[in-house]
Amino acid sequence: MDRNQVIGFALLAALLIGYISYNQYEQKKLELQKKSDSTSVAHTRPKIDSITAPATAAINDSATEALKKLQPPAFNGTAQTVTLENARVAIQFNTKGASPVSAALKEYKTYGGKDQLYLFNGTGNYLNTILPYDNGRATNTLYFTPTTKTEADGSKSINFAGDLGNGKRVDIIYTLPANEYMMHCNIVLTGMPAQNVKMAWQTQALHTERDIATERLNTQVYYHFKDDDNDYFTVRNNEEKTFHSDNATKWVGFRKQYFTSAIINDDGFSKVDIKATAKTEDSSIVATNFTEFITPLKGAGNVSTASFRWYLGPNDYNTLKSYKIGLDEMIPLGYGIMSFVKYINKGILIPIFYFLSSFISNYAIIIMLMTIFIRLITSFFTYKSYLSSAKMRILKPELDELRAKIGDDQQKMGVEQMKLYREAGVNPLGGCLPMLIQLPILLSMYYMFPSFIEFRQKSFLWAHDLSTYDSIFSWTTNIPLLSSVYGNHISLFTLMMTASSLFLAIYNRNMTPQDPNNPMMKYMPYVFPVILMGVFNKMAAALTFYYTFSNLLSIAQQFLIQKFFINEKAIHAQIQANRSKPPVASKWQQKLQEMQSAQADRGKVQPRTNKK
Predict the structure, then answer these.
(1) Fewer Cβ in 10 A, N or C end of the chain?
(2) Cα 109 to Cα 128: distance, rounded to the nearest angstrom
(3) Does residue 45 register a pLDDT over 70?
(4) What share of the chain is helix, strand, coil (3-state, %, to 5)?
(5) What is the helix (H) or strand (E) element at residue 54, kind and residue range?
(6) How far apart are the C-alpha atoms of 547 and 496, rounded to whole Å?
(7) For residue 181, how far is the Cα from the chain centroid?
């Protein structure tokens, strides 16, 4: 490398070093300038031109107003509330969405009778329609203008009008008759041709009764199809229940213990999706129901209408039945394997109840009169039962002799025992007939009394509300097993029911001969009432009072029959007279003998013949 090359490389290195140094110096200078500028801006107040600033704001406001004028009127507005009410129900609507946000039942109060009862209340409740407009604009995003109207018959209506511009319009009309819980709804679409619209309905049922756990056990979603088939499911804690149906669904009902919200379409909803849950941290909400469905539109030309009804009221049997669309099926009068008892309730007990309540205001007296009436009807069979027990009691010494003579041969003992009963003219099953008749009645009452809203907030003696348990003592401490099975309270009617059941069992044991070979039957009458005590401690006081009074009436009835109608000496003489007569087999016994003879004939071996 010569000298010129060395000098060249040295100059290049110097230029590179100088460029780098200058660049770093300029960057530091720029950063210092930025810091200085930011500091001066932060500490220096800008000058405001009092003339140009208002002009600028006015220009911005006018631009916003101009933009609003370009949008449909229903896109802008202020949310307000408006109320539609009659003598029974007051429904509050929000003008944004034209949807009910609360429903108060004027004739009812929450538990304790202090606060107005609301089926639902709050923005979590809505009815939303997806319009065939603007790629599926939802009504809950629109602002409506309400117009109220009162008809000559006393019915009232609100027309929520939503102007979408360019001849397009949606009217949501709610009509409430003067003295009903059923609201009529029409959604009228103008300039938006379609065959159907999709709707979404959500209701958050509020806690209104004494025990929210009992409310949730009695909260169900019902769905009734257009072919009159129906079904339901219960909304339980800590789970979410869903249901989907492509069948035409006539109505969907969200039923609480004593109140219901139901949407009805006589033409049928399609593609129904239901989702219900009791999962909530809000202790004022029992459960939430969300339902989506497609509603058909009717009409021709430029205008089409979706029509449906909305029931917001009590689970009153007569009221629900009056609509003749199966809403009364929501009152659980018997279901599952016990569904047969609902026909006893509907055909016998409910008509008797309403007949008595038409002139008696005290529901405890009605319960007692119904019990006495049922006892009078079944008194003949009860007498036959006690007569059969008396005959077996008279024959007990002879049975004891047979048992001592035969020993442990149970089969032979059974044959001889039936022979003795047949000779004496005694039917050993005669004592079962009254129980077979009374059991369906007892089961019918089990379903009817806790479901009838008539008992709600009706008092009797120490029970302030016959629709719930009568607590004479309660505690808050959770006691393992006891609290989960029995509860944190003591129901006096349940204790009286248990005590009277035990007394009746003891009384029957002394009046009825016992089978020493079946020790389980000896103790079952005493164990069963104690087991049921834990179940009925949480039940309605109307039910436990009925069982208590029924037991007391059975004790009195049995005492009177044994005292004045059963003559054991005459019965003994009759038994001896029956023995002197040739035994006559009953038709059932004759049929049994024929079957046995035919079976014996078929069992005979036919002789063989040798063929040559």
Answers:
(1) C
(2) 29
(3) no
(4) 45, 25, 30
(5) helix 52-70
(6) 9
(7) 19
Domains of the chain: 73-331 (2.70.98.90), 343-574 (no CATH)
Q: What is the pLDDT of residues 90-136, one digit of tens each?
A: 999 999 999 999 999 999 999 988 899 999 999 899 999 999 999 99
Q: DSSP letter at 338?
A: G
Structure tokens at 119: 């089926």
Q: pLDDT (tens digit, 9 = 90+) per residue, 498-520? A: 999 998 888 777 666 555 555 55
Q: State both tokens at 225.
A: 């199809």
Distance CA 144, CA 162 (A): 5
pLDDT in tens, 274-332: 999 998 888 899 999 999 999 999 987 799 999 999 999 999 999 999 999 999 999 99
Identify the pLDDT of residue 46: 42
With beta carbons less than 8 A apart as the criterion, state whether 338 and 443 touch: yes
Distance of CA 237 to the CA centre of its chain: 13
- Using CB atoms within 10 Å of the CB of residue 552, give its burial: 0 to 12 exposed, 13 to 18 middle, 19+ buried: middle
* Residue of 388, 487, 369, 460 lying closest to 428 (CA atoms): 388
The closest of 525, 414, 364 to 372, measured between CA atoms, is: 364
Least confident interval from 37-46, 48-57, 97-106? 37-46
